[in-house]
Amino acid sequence: MAAVARAHPNIALVKYWGKADDELIIPAAGSMSMTLDKFATTTSVALTSGSDTFELNGTTADAKATARTTAFLDLVRDLAAQAGLDTAQAGAQVVSSNEGPTAAGMASSASGFAALATAAATAFGVELSSRQLSRLARRGSGSASRSLIDRFAVWHAGTSDATSYAEPISAPDMAMVSVTVNATAKKVSSRDGMTATRDTSPYYQAWIDTTVTTLNEMLAACAAEDFTRIGQLTETHAHRMHAVINASHPPIRYLAPESWQIFEEVTAMRQMGLEAYATADAGPNVVIICRPDDAAAVAARVGAYGQINTFSPGPGAHLVDVA
Ligand code: DP6
Asked: What is the rounded distance in angstroms from the CA atom of residue 210 to the CA atom of residue 264?
């Protein structure tokens, strides 16, 4: 059996930063995101009688990435064993490619594990609901749980494997304009940065508490189709995340001077009546949210700071071929 799946990255408006359970990847608070319509990952999984292999962007993946893929496939084999399938013993040939520019920092682990979960479940003959697929993808990378979902997703933190999953929510149409900043700072992975924040930042509990409150406010703003409120919540929440991270010891800084300049530029846009709000993940790149009709004007204002991409809400992970 073989299957090919496609998934897109997502950008969180309410961020996930901190785990309650490292092994099961249960987050300490819920989060909310928009799935993008560009930079897809396409992944094929073909069962073999040998051991697992993993090719990424045309070359054999390194040992660390291959081990992470095998650990993920072991979860799929466990599901196959529970269903009494003989595929539980199979190896898999995994071939994956990212359409996004490499090292653009556009959440490729989210699209990667969402595509892998979708393709592998089908190749191993395991039938999963969309909620179960979201839970499976979560075990590869937490944010991947949200890339299963079309357009806008809420990831319920839950308190167990069964209760921690993403599902769709409705939100007003919006655009995201990403600015890929050319920064040379060495990056701490999200996984390591999250652990360091939990273990060493004195503001960690306050950050988790405020994320719970912000998610509730965000869900209410989405239900009310209140773009202004969504934007305000997004930008304040991004600053709070970087503040709790900055307070780790040793300090972690993901934002570069250019990132701060873009935040300033977005403030200036608002002052002249162009309604835009900024956020940033675990790196120097900044993502600006705005109304779809304003995307070109926003992009023009920040073009000098780095490479620009404009996104609309995109589709959740889906199968594209089964053989
Ligand atoms: C800043 O999902 O990559 O992008 O679960 O350890 O794989 P792991 O972390 P990951 O973290 C994403 C962090 C973030 C915020 C977000 O996407 O919510």
From this structure: 24
